[in-house]
Amino acid sequence: MLFIIVVSGAILFMALVGMIKWQNDDIKKQWIEDSSQVLNACFTLNALLLAPGRTLTLHRTIQLARARGWRTGPSEGWTADAIKRARVLEADNKPWLHLVPTRPSGAVIPDYEITPWRKWVAITLYNNANGWFQIPMAVAMYVWINDFNNRPPYIVGASLPLSFICGAIAGIWPSLIWKKVKKIRKERKAAAGGEDAGGPIPSDGIPLTEGSASKTLSVGGASTGAEDTNTVDTQTPVKTPTPIDTHEELEGGSRGPIFQEGGERGRTRGSLKEEKWTRSLTRKVLFGGEKEEEE
């Protein structure tokens, strides 16, 4: 349908502004009429498809107003029946619509998230008016389809822009309401010192707060002047594995030196000759010289 609307609209526009050259005015008027009829058929079909849902929403809004006793205050008239009816409307218009001042869990909704009753009623009426104004335009187009030169121009001239304006307002207004809610949420989150506040975030992921003590970052005993919540010292020697002379029987009967570091134990496999060579190399590294091992 969108492709048909675009093509017919382009033909109508080029015909009206004179971008297409015609042999005579009668052919031009016939092309304009045909393109207008195609566009009107698309808009009428769209209005007919949306009419049941919009009418049902209007009916539910009227029923909700009756259940609230025609009260319009954000915290007035919320009986159990009214809350039940409002939840249905909120579910159909997520996430921007909040009529009941509390969530289903019982939590209180902030005032800036509650949709004013008058705004909701206005949006509902604009949605329905978008289809209502399509009716006189469609009637005028089809009644004078064979005598379009005598069609009253004021019917289409008034119905078409009013229908477009109502549809635009009903479509844009909820987006503006939801955008405002998200903006206020972000501002309050930033004011509360959240991640959007732009404050320094240390490497451990814990945000700095006012009054927290700052420490100097030291690397190799020298101060860098930068503030951080942790002190780094690189002068502490790294613990290396130390050999243990104790031997234990390994799988398959092989024996080897045991290396231990903080409870972690690793064993090398090999024959007795490989074991002696390993121990000799270890003594050479640790004591600077190789000692002969007594048999």
From TrEMBL:
Transmembrane intervals: 6-22, 125-145, 157-178
Keywords, in A-Z order: Membrane, Transmembrane, Transmembrane helix
Compositionally biased intervals (Polar residues): 226-239
Pfam families according to UniProt: DUF2985
Chain positions covered by the region annotation Disordered: 190-275
Keyword Transmembrane assigned: yes
Keyword hit for Transmembrane helix: yes
InterPro entries the record matches: DUF2985
Biased segments, Basic and acidic residues type: 262-275
Protein name: Uncharacterized protein
